[in-house]
Write a structure and sequence with these properties.
Layout lengths: L6 E2 L2 H15 L15 E11 L7 E10 L10 E10 L10 E4 L9 E4 L4 H12 L2 E3 L2 E5 L9 E3 L7 E5 L3 E5 L2 E2 L5 H11 L10 E5 L2 E8 L5 E2 H10 L5 H21 L3 E2 L2 H21 L7 H12 L12 E2 L11 E3 L5 E3 L10 H4 L6 H16 L6 H19 L7 H22 L5 H11 L3
Antiparallel strand pairs: 1-2, 2-3, 3-4, 4-6, 4-12, 5-6, 7-8, 8-13, 9-10, 10-11, 11-14, 13-14, 15-18, 16-17, 18-19
Helix pairs in contact: 4-9, 5-10, 6-7, 6-11, 7-11, 9-10, 9-11, 11-12
This protein binds adenosine-5'-diphosphate (ADP) and ligand LMANGFYV.
Amino acid sequence: MPETASTTRAPAALLPSLAPLLHEWLPRQRWFAGKGRAVNGFALDTATELLPLDGPGPGLLHLLIRVEQPGLPAGTPADCYQLLLGVRTTVPPRLAPTLIGRARQGPLAGRAVYEGLRDPRLAGLLYERLRTPGTLGPLRFARTAPLPPALAPRMLDAEQSNSSLVFGDSYILKIFRRVSPGANPDLELPLALAGAGCARVPAPVAWFESGSATLGVLQPFLRDSRDGWRLALDALAAGREFTEEAQALGRATAEVHTALAATLPTEPLHRTQTSQLAEAMAARLDAAVQAVPALLPYKKGLREVFAEYGRHIPARSDGATRLAQRVHGDLHLGQTLRTADGAWSVIDFEGEPAKPLAERRRPQPPVRDVAGMLRSFDYAARTHRPWNDGWAARCRAAYCAGYAEASGLDPREDPALLRAYETDKAVYEVVYEARHRPDWLPVPMAAIHRLAAGS
Ligand SMILES: Nc1ncnc2c1ncn2[C@@H]1O[C@H](COP(=O)(O)OP(=O)(O)O)[C@@H](O)[C@H]1O
Ligand SMILES: O=P(O)(O)O[C@H]1O[C@H](CO)[C@@H](O[C@H]2O[C@H](CO)[C@@H](O)[C@H](O)[C@H]2O)[C@H](O)[C@H]1O
């Protein structure tokens, strides 16, 4: 074990020290999901000293903390977040921007509390833990193969739902911020895909957990890669087509789907399941209209798209029953990475972060991911001036052709299904943009306008 062994604190004892600091700091974090609602209090589920707080140097405290907020349906547990806090008597100038505050009371009174992941010494310690399988209080560390020692850490500053650290340009560790019981699909699916020999995902090499909850996953870092969103925008800016890339992305998506269907449970999609899926889409639309009233004029037209899907008799052109299966769940260009050799990888299998874990892990028609990517070509085209609708249409066609090539199923053969999933995604995007990036709202609204009009 690296440095000194850990201890587990009685969690409640730390709250008087931490609660006043976190009250200010937590709601400001990009990954804090409860924005716009008051924070009434905190409860600590676990508190683990990865590095003792009363040692000579800095301490590293791992917390699973519940944030009590109003407005949750009865019986819904408060959101639980994972925090890694550094604790020092004084914070050196290079770490000053990471300061959360100085505790005034309780066992940490007078000590500085700061973002532990931004301290290379503490981030390095976490990597050392991942190298060493075993348990540490409530935390369990596992790995698939030996890892090299002492890789220098750096934190990614991307706008993320979680937090990621790169170690020596060899590995990337994603620390999940909002944590729920149950395997996180971002570990479960890449592990299953790697096990099935699918080369389209960076295979997890280590992870850590508490109870049944996944807390972090270490994967190879694709250092010479660029993400599909950047590549698409570059192509647009240079007046280039992106059809070859889109076709390869279609093939990559199909490879992922085929491997997931071969290794994880699938369910037949008969008429009843189809109408339930259509009803769920209509219910999401109703909730979205409440949240974003600009959707109201389109409600009737959009409901008709879902009703058409609900009436639809699912049958494949080869006569087989359609299947629901595990899918990516939030596929878009930003979730794809292309390495210098031209190979595409798919990342971030967590699904839509706002949805409950159980819902994200449910089998769904694979067209859900196809629709997500088709929406993404439209997004890329719409962020470019002048708007290049033809570019997006050609990418969309090439992507479907690539998907058909690798899976034998052309998503365009089932337009009612595809339109319903594109509409469901556009409705999700309207709510997402209204909440996070209001300037982007016209992008999904343009799609809503088109889809509600039946074109
Ligand atoms: N294996 C990887 N290799 C290189 N970069 C990666 C890798 N995995 C993730 N990234 C980079 O990290 C960013 C955030 O990762 P992501 O899994 O999307 O996190 P989040 O769930 O927080 O959005 C990605 O946009 C990508 O640029
Ligand atoms: O990447 P995340 O898992 O955090 O996904 C969320 O944020 C995405 C934006 O970063 C959002 O994607 C939408 O915007 C993209 C362009 O920035 C576009 O390519 C996607 O097609 C569009 O859906 C995603 O919906 C949201 O869940």
